[in-house]
Amino acid sequence: MTGQDIELQHIYLEVKAERWQCIERFLLPYFCFRHQYITQQGKADWQKMRDKVASSDQVDDRKQAKLIPAIPHQTLIGKIKTLAHHQDFSLTSLEQLLANYLSFVLISNAEYQTLKSLKLIDKMPVEWYRSRHQAPMARFTHADIQFSTYHTDLIKVS
Fold first, then answer.
1. Local confidence band at 88 (pLDDT 50, 70, 90 cut-offs)
2. Are strands 54-55 and 104-107 parallel, antiparallel or unpaired?
3. CB–CB of 44/32 below 8 Å?
4. Structural domain tally of the chain?
5. Would residue 150 count as lying in a domain?
6. CA–CA dist 122, 147 (Å, integer)
7. What is the 3-state secondary structure of 13-41?
8. Which of 15, 78, 128, 156 lies 20 to 30 angstroms, CA to CA, from 135?
9. pTM score, whole prediction
10. CA quadruple 57, 61, 66, 70: dihedral sign
11. For residue 156, is pLDDT > 50?
12. pLDDT, tens digit (0-9, with 9 covering 90-100), for 42-86
């Protein structure tokens, strides 16, 4: 069993037990394992992730930039809750949801303040919740935060 499998199992077990508050702690390690951001000892490597994830056009220094989830964790957990209440909820459906919606990006401190002023730190724009196509990068588009390049295994900017 790989690190990715173990982290996915942790998330799955927390969902099955409806311990929603515990899920967030497994999202970043799962993402690291899924994208092979791991140390030589086989542990999740946050620094490697920081060096590889998509960054906005305003980021000059990756070490000073804010690392945030593309979709706020509480919003993603809400999507997981919805999925968990469907009859076809499985490890595979959870893995697919995470593949579609779990991603991290780097933004500048000024861009973070823009998100904060728009009240988009912990939520997506209102129209995102009503949309059938919920673009993972919608809050950045809403805040006019540009990503001209991105890592190929991450969510693409539309």
1. confident
2. parallel
3. yes
4. 1
5. no
6. 20
7. HHHHCCCHHHHHHHHHHHHHHHCCCECCC
8. 15
9. 0.88
10. positive
11. no
12. 999 999 999 999 999 999 999 999 999 999 999 999 999 999 998
Q: Is residue 97 part of a domain?
A: yes
Amino acid at 121: I
Can you tell me the mean pLDDT for 130-138?
A: 92
Helix (H, G, I), strand (E, B) or coil at 102: coil
The token pair at 46 is: 């946050």
Q: Which two tokens stand for residue 68?
A: 């945030």
Q: How many CB atoms lie within 10 A of CB 117?
A: 10
- Give residue 82's domain range: 3-142
Q: Confirm whether 30 is domain-assigned.
A: yes
Which runs of consecutive H residues, i.e. helices, occur in 18-156? 20-34, 46-52, 73-84, 91-101, 109-117, 126-130, 138-142
**Cα(54)–Cα(64) distance, integer angstroms:** 14
Q: Is 74 part of any domain?
A: yes
Using CA atoms, how far apart are residues 116 and 122, in angstroms rounded to an integer? 9
**Measured in Å, how far apart are the chain's first and last C-alpha atoms?**
35
Burial zone of 142 (CB within 10 Å; 0-12 exposed, 13-18 middle, 19+ buried): middle
69 pairs with which residues across the strands? 104
